[in-house]
Amino acid sequence: MEPTQSCSLAADARRRSRRVRVRSLRRSGKKEAPSPAMSSPPTPHVLLVSAPLQGHVNPLLVLGRRLASRGLLVTFTTAPHTGLKKVGHENGAALDSVRRGAVRFEHLSGGGLWAPDDPRYRVPDDVARHLEDAAPAALAGLIRRQADAGRPVSCIVANAFAPWALRAAGAMGVPCAMLWTQSCAVLSLYYHYFHLLAAFTSEEAEADTQVSVPGLPPLAAGDLPSLIHAPEDYIWRQTLVADIRSLRETASWVLVNTFDELEHAAIEALRAHLPVVSIGPLFETENDAGHDECTAWLDAQTTRSVVFVAFGSVLKLSRDEMADLSEGLADTGRPFLWVVRDDSRDLLPDNALAAATSGGGRVVSWCKQRRVLSHRAVGCFVTHCGWNSTTEALVAGVPVVAYPAWSDQRTNAAFLVDVYGVGVRLVPTPPTRDAVRRCVEEVMSGAPEAEVMRARAEEWKAKASAAVADGGSSDRGTRDFVDAVLSIGAGN
User: Fold this and answer.
1) CATH code for the domain in which residue 71 is found
2) Which domain holds residue 165?
3) d(CA 142, CA 48)
4) How far apart are CA 411 and CA 138, in angstroms?
5) pLDDT band at 84 (very low <50, low <70, confident <90, very high)
6) Are 215 and 188 in contact (CB under 8 A)?
7) What whole-number distance in Å separates Cα of residue 184 and Cα of residue 216?
8) Does 484 have pLDDT greater than 90?
9) Residues 326 and 353: beta-carbon distance below 8 Å
10) DSSP 83
């Protein structure tokens, strides 16, 4: 981001802060109190708000640590529940690190929110509906409690798919930003579609019909994000529409988990409509350290010999898909590490599991994905192409076998294969055991394409590291956002 853009961000932040404060005061009938001449202002306080889904929580926590390491007071909140692995901290506790900043945790509660052990948290659709009803009041209460404790909230950063957080922030006069946790390309597709800014095909169009959006390569209709043509009463589509249609009015910044070198054209084109700031890839730099059972097993494997298989925290394959996948992996004769969540373990046929693991495979219920992908033994990643997994593969320099299912995954798969050139797509869908074997072999040893894919993956790894390093494109974007938050207090 150029210096003039940074100054503009800061000026916009001050104007936005003043406008939302004045609107809030007018609604309450209060007058603005003069600032005490000698009192020192509190440290600017950023409140991070996430829907209680692991794929939403992880990148927001990484951003929080980066903001805290630059001197901001950062608090993270969500509705905690037993299915979340990273939000087990007590209220007011801080997650400390020597190299990263400390992030405080304040659990979202009250307002009729479910208890943390409520089994309804296991159904994402039910969670989305519940948060729309109960979370705004709970968040408003938390903002008031922070002010009463001497930590007034300067800015809220809310994940996408949590429009209730931006509404609550606006109602209380707090400037806000959205963290878009998918690609800028997907954000642009949604924005152009829901604002009628480009011609899109109908749901019945042929899958290979081309769609053109400024800043993006031509995309086949079958590669568009699935929420574009989802039923209008589908809760996640309704949540997305609320996000996209209100962005210009509610968010002073749109922080995107991407980096300029990866999506330069998409970022520049979308900046004509939205205040986009690239601040990714949001990954844990410390995930490469440490040792556990998975890394111990990987240590015993030869370099680039292992096929890593993982499909995120939500996607569930059918029993037939699990059987074909396990048989195809066994047919490769290669060692593999396959993450099968506890809620999917009963879908894996016992005979298929036995056949697969007898050939040197290993099935686990969870692993530190970044750590695994960064291990020298991993040579291929069979992935559902969620954006977190997509960026983690690029950061690690690991080629992929793309097996997308829904949401943004088909678009990410198209970019991984056709634009970034680091993998192949697993077809047909659902795949056969022979297709699994063939695609893995194409990525692992197919000549000369496999070497080309590996070389491209290494190039993206270097570019991603440079983006978040001191002075890199995303480092500058993060710094400019921090400067803008600091200026909110300076301009009051």
Assistant:
1) 3.40.50.2000
2) 3-285+469-490
3) 12
4) 35
5) confident
6) yes
7) 10
8) yes
9) yes
10) T
Distance CA 172, CA 420 (A): 43
Q: Among residues 466, 480, 10, 423, which one has the least CA distance to residue 260?
A: 466
**Mean pLDDT, rounded, for 250-256:** 94
CA–CA dist 111, 135 (Å, integer): 7
Of 191, 223, 273, nearest to 415 (Cα)?
A: 223
291 and 409 together in one domain: yes
Verify that 175 and 124 share a domain, yes or no: yes
Residues 326 and 437 in one domain: yes
Query: From CA 355, how far away is CA 281, in angstroms rounded?
Result: 38
Long-range contacts of 345-353 (CB under 8 A, 24+ apart): 347/316, 347/317, 347/318, 347/319, 347/322, 348/319, 348/322, 348/323, 349/319, 349/322, 349/323, 352/322, 352/323, 352/326, 352/327, 353/326
* Active-site residue, 384 included: no
Catalytic residue among 45, 56, 107, 384: 56
The predicted pLDDT at position 468 comes to 94
**% of the chain at pLDDT higher than 90:** 69
Query: Which region among 11-25, 103-117, 349-363 has the lowest average model confidence (pLDDT)?
Result: 11-25
Cβ partners under 8 Å of residue 159, min gap 6: 49, 50, 51, 56, 60, 165, 178, 179, 181
**Looking at the structure, do residues 255 and 308 belong to the same domain, yes or no?**
no
